[in-house]
Amino acid sequence: MSGENRGYALELKNVHKTFNAGTINEKVALEGVELQLEDGDFVTIIGGNGAGKSTMLNAIAGVWPVDTGSIVIGGTDVTSLPEHKRAKYLGRVFQDPMTGTAKTMSIEENMAIAARRGKRRSLKWGVTKEEKERYKAMLKTLDLGLEDRLTSKVGLLSGGQRQAVTLLMASLQKPNLLLLDEHTAALDPKTAAKVLALSDKIIEENGLTAMMVTHNMKDAITHGNRLIMMHEGRVIYDVRGEEKRNLHVSDLLAKFEEVSGGEFANDRMILA
Fold it and tell me: What is the 3-state secondary structure (H, E, C) of the chain?
């Protein structure tokens, strides 16, 4: 999957974002973020609270406009596009398993909505037999018994099952970029491990480019081919390949202390 013709899968150029500028509550969230992702990169993102991790994902998704800089996805400059117009380029899974699905609708209806995102809606709305078969086959790969529950309302599923379904939905249209925003943080360790393994599988099988924000340093090292650390709205460390695979949590803590001049004050991340 060469990206030579169309440049990077994602390019952030000098992205700045300040909230409540000029007020007592002013908060610089992103300070000149520079980042390029190659096609097929799976980048894990770590950093303390307020480092700018989720802010960066929200900037990419167009949740609010950036102050300066540009965001280019697969060669298309999306900087001025509103959130709904960026949806066709992106798949996203949130921390809260209740986000990203319509809980009063069935599994098959949720998947059909995801499959038709960005396409022209016709008056005929219904899940076709072919779609049902396709969704059933996809759900079977999850190994959660959901292939026999196509008509179950999503609100009846467990947190782990919902995140698994949301992952499938986010990857249905093979987005240019998959954003995973602490998508296992609300799950128990066993379920989180299963959802992470599923994330790896979906990203690899579909050849997706992905970014995963996590509070778990061990997960950040284990998953993906590249790791970036953020601090005070900037990328302060970027490591990939063999060097990343040989990292230990102690290396990341040492790196953080070296660049920030202070200790890593986030128990949740270290203990996770």
Answer: CCCCCCCCCEEEEEEEEEECCCCCCCEEEEEEEEEEECCCCEEEEEECCCCCHHHHHHHHHCCCCCCEEEEEECCEECCCCCHHHHHHHEEEECCCCCCCCCCCCEHHHHHHHHHCCCCCCCCCCCCCHHHHHHHHHHHHCCCCCHHHCCCCEHHHCCHHHHHHHHHHHHHCCCCCEEEEECCCCCCCHHHHHHHHHHHHHHHHHHCCCEEEECCCHHHHHHCCCEEEEEECCEEEEEEEHHHHHCCCHHHHHHHHHHHHCCCCCCHHHHHC
